[in-house]
Amino acid sequence: MGGPTSSPEKSGARQALLEAVIGAGRVSSTATVLFHAEVAEHAGLGSSDHKTLDILLREGPLTASEIARRTGLAAASVTSLIDRLESRGFVRRTRDASDRRLVVVEAVPEGVGQIAELFAPLARSMSALLDSFSTKQLETIRDYLTRSAVVLNKEAKRLRERE
Questions:
Q1: CA separation for the pair 40, 43 (Å, rounded)
Q2: What is the C-alpha separation between 112 and 97, in angstroms, rounded?
Q3: Are 85 and 106 in contact (CB under 8 A)?
Q4: pLDDT for the residue 10
Q5: Pairwise CA distance, residues 158 & 72, whole Å
Q6: Quick check: 79 and 64 in contact, CB under 8 A?
């Protein structure tokens, strides 16, 4: 029995394309990580702080335990992270509207505004890039990115559970 690259479908030009896509994905991933590291540094944040803020912006207010689940960070680390973000004016702790016993963490629009300024040039550049693709190509790109995020999250969870 052959490995994942031995099927007739994965020979020749298709195999070369698969390898090129994987290579481009690695290059893109590294560029993304390095860009976000620069943004975090300019904002005076650590990378976990910056990405947690992104999660809050996309998903809305979350409890500390929900943040821990989504980031894979230990509860004590999340408490320190929230303290750092709160002291810098990026988030605030509030009571949950439906269960006043729960404390949720929410992004502060004024604080987040300074980070948004760092992303504005990238947003313009990416918009111009995306405009060069057809609707069908954009659907394929969206599908790939969505499905690859599911795979990455699953693999990150697998690694966390190995510990």
A1: 5
A2: 22
A3: no
A4: 61
A5: 11
A6: yes
